[in-house]
Design brief:
Layout lengths: L2 H6 L32 E5 L2 E4 H19 L10 H24 L6 H10 L4 E2 L2 E2 L1 H10 L4 H23 L4 H10 L2 E9 L12 H10 L5 E2 L2 E10 L11 H10 L5 E2 L2 E10 L6 H20 L4 H8 L11 E5 L6 H8 L10 E3 L2 E11 L2 E2 L2 H34 L5 H7 L4 E2 L18 H7 L2 H4 L8 E2 L4 E11 L2 E2 L2 H33 L4 H7 L5 E5 L8 H9 L9 E6 L5 E10 L5 H26 L2 E3 L1 H7 L1
Antiparallel strand pairs: 1-2, 1-21, 3-4, 5-18, 5-20, 6-17, 7-14, 7-16, 8-13, 9-10, 9-12, 11-12, 15-16, 19-20
Helix pairs in contact: 2-3, 3-6, 6-20, 7-20, 8-17, 9-13
């Protein structure tokens, strides 16, 4: 997509991808003019249909946005497929409701405003000026045409005007107090008592080690271990006995001709006289009369097609190019337009063609016929494709036989070896939670699950056939099994001692910290308390966003109350690394209400009110949602 358009579409891209996917309003749209008609309707909003084909293209665009965010075009998005589809449809319905509401209120996007917005995008400029050539090339790369893009831009601009109007009118008085809190400053002092200062002072006895070992034996277990014997079947084991004769290849060619066909393409110009969606019968007749008059001028030679396109066409994307739409193929244009072009000769001008966009006068400039590659040209490729298909079918036939033999002979892999001529392999001992190289079969969770299953581990049976992907499958059985057991005390004695030393040093640090805090509460000067224990207070003026202070200390400092009568308040805190801290807050200064912070809150409130508007429109709307029923068909 064109990055500059995304940059200029304020608030249109916001993703949260854990539990919630909030899809954007489609700045790029789905190209109404460039779509063929499709009778399947995904939803209907107050009588306005949303075609399933539009919906599918919108879903694909959202997936492309996600892949761009992840910087991985090959990422598997199947885990969020249903959520993407549901949220896409919800956004399309919301947008249609907003457009209808704006239109009914008399809001319109003028040609001047639309052109100004499009001409402002840096992506469409060359040497600082708007370039029609670059504009069309970039749209073509996205599978769009100017008419479709401009219609969707009108819709997006209309929706954005509503949204920005609500945000600009949002009141933020109640949130200004939050701004002062966000920017609040505190004078914070703290000292840290390292637990390591007591390492040489604590003693751990053999009795303490033994007691800890007994009380926490589960921490010192050797896990349950197994090794497996397995037989793997892969597509590499397949030898196609029968060759592919000429007749088979030719029959494949006949059955798959569409695969080897390059579709026809056309290059045409048109003059479009638009019909609004809410046009009356009179409006339609007036548009037809206008189009007929233009066609008559073309036929009489009064003016050229190019002159009339520049003068009268409502397609602002092509009118400055004499109506030229460039090259397009099957399905790129609405059906009435495409049907007309298919019957025309190069240089011919059509009669009036009516589509849902209005009346078209079409001139066919050039055409490329459908081209079918010859059998000789594609014979090698067909042979390869057919070989792959036959090999895949043979593989799954062998897998069925593989599974049957393993099931009928559950206590050994010998029957598979004898019947299928495959060689068994073995692994070393491993536990459920061991990590394995990616190229190892033990990196596959299905293999681990099967190896520790009751039927394999306890009953001693062969596993079911396990599909490990890429046309590879295996059957396994346990070769060796070792139950979980406790490690000998001598083996873990040193690690237990280290753990007990840590516990004791942390306890000593806490004990000293609480003693110092009690002294301070009894009015002993904090500096004297610190000096007597060879410790130092560190003082900083900080905000909530400070990065120089340990985050645990900073967060605790902002949870503490406000000091009164110029007297600091104190609190203790055990740190994650086992050290112990004393924290003092001596002063609190309210933060300033910065423009950026207030703007952020205003945006938040405006977004909330915008969503409330949509909810209100849905209450009064007649919405028909065919998502579930069409999903079942797809």
């Amino acid at each position: 997509m064109l990055q500059n358009i995304r940059d200029n579409s304020q608030g249109c891209l916001s993703w949260v991808i854990v539990g919630l996917i909030s899809l954007t309003f489609a700045v790029w749209g789905i190209g109404e003019f460039g779509l063929s008609n499709n009778e399947r309707i995904i939803a209907e909003v107050n009588g306005v249909e949303i075609p399933e084909e539009d919906f599918i293209k919108q879903v694909n665009q959202q997936k492309n946005r996600l892949r761009s965010m992840f910087k991985n075009q090959d990422i598997d998005l199947s885990f969020m497929q249903d959520q993407i589809r549901k949220n896409t449809l919800r956004q399309m319905i919301d947008e249609e409701l907003l457009v209808q509401s704006a239109t009914n209120s008399g809001m319109r996007i003028s040609n001047g405003l639309l052109a100004a917005r499009i001409h402002s995008f840096e992506a469409f400029k060359s040497d600082g000026k708007f370039s029609q050539v670059i504009y069309e090339q970039l749209l073509q790369r996205q599978g769009l045409n100017p008419i479709a893009f401009e219609m969707d831009m009108r819709r997006s601009l209309l929706v954005e005007q509503i949204r920005q109007g609500i945000i600009r009118s949002a009141l933020v008085t109640d949130n200004e107090q939050r701004a002062t809190l966000e920017n609040q400053q505190r004078s914070v002092s703290y000292l840290i008592i390292p637990s390591s200062r007591f390492t040489d002072k604590v003693v751990v006895s053999d009795e303490e080690i033994a007691n800890h070992y007994q009380e926490n034996s589960i921490q010192y277990m050797i896990p349950e271990l197994v090794s497996i014997e397995y037989i793997e079947l892969s597509n590499k084991d397949i030898d196609l006995k029968e060759g592919l004769d000429e007749e088979s290849l030719k029959q494949y060619y006949e059955d798959h001709k569409e695969t080897f066909t390059t579709p026809a393409k056309w290059q045409a110009s048109h003059i479009l006289i638009k019909i609004a969606k809410d046009a009356t019968l009179t409006d339609t007749e007036l548009a037809a009369d206008k189009a007929s008059n233009i066609l008559a001028q073309i036929k009489t030679g009064e003016k050229s097609f190019a002159e009339l396109a520049q003068q009268f066409s409502d397609d602002i994307g092509s009118k400055d190019k004499d109506g030229d739409l460039g090259w397009f193929g099957p399905g790129d244009m609405v059906k009435p337009f495409e049907d007309a072009v298919k019957t025309m000769q190069i240089g011919e001008i059509s009669e009036l063609v009516k589509s849902r966009f209005g009346f078209h006068i079409i001139k066919l400039n050039d055409a490329k016929p459908e081209v079918l590659q010859s059998f000789a040209d594609v014979k090698t490729k067909i042979k390869q494709d057919l070989s792959n298909e036959l090999a895949e079918a043979e593989f799954y036939t062998l897998v069925d036989n593989f599974g049957n033999v393993a099931f009928e002979n559950p206590n050994s892999l010998d029957a598979i070896v004898e019947t299928m001529g495959l060689t068994p392999k073995t692994t070393e001992l491993f536990s459920k939670n061991d990590k394995h190289p990616e190229d190892s079969i033990l990196s596959n969770s299905k293999v681990i699950t099967a190896a520790f299953s009751d039927s394999v581990l306890k009953d001693g049976y062969n596993s079911e056939v396990i599909d490990i992907g890429e046309q590879r499958a295996l059957v396994l059985r346990v070769k060796e099994h070792k139950l979980a057991k406790a490690k000998p005390l001598e083996e873990v004695k040193d690690s237990i001692k280290i753990a007990l030393i840590k516990i004791k040093t942390e306890a000593e640090a806490k004990k000293l910290g609480e003693h110092l805090l009690e002294q301070i509460k009894q009015n002993t000067a904090p500096n004297i308390v610190a000096q007597d224990s060879d410790l130092t207070w560190l003082t900083s003026q900080v905000t909530r966003q400070d990065k120089t202070m340990q985050q645990a200390i900073l967060q605790q400092a902002f949870k503490m109350g406000h000091p009164a009568n110029n007297k600091a308040i104190y609190q203790s805190l055990k740190l994650d690394n086992g050290d112990f801290a004393l924290i003092a807050v001596s002063a609190v200064k309210a933060g300033e209400k910065t423009v950026g912070t207030v703007t952020q809150y205003k945006q938040s409130i405006g977004d909330s009110e915008f969503n409330q508007l949509i909810s209100g429109l849905k209450i009064d709307a007649e919405i028909k949602d065919n998502f579930a029923e069409l999903s079942d068909d797809s």
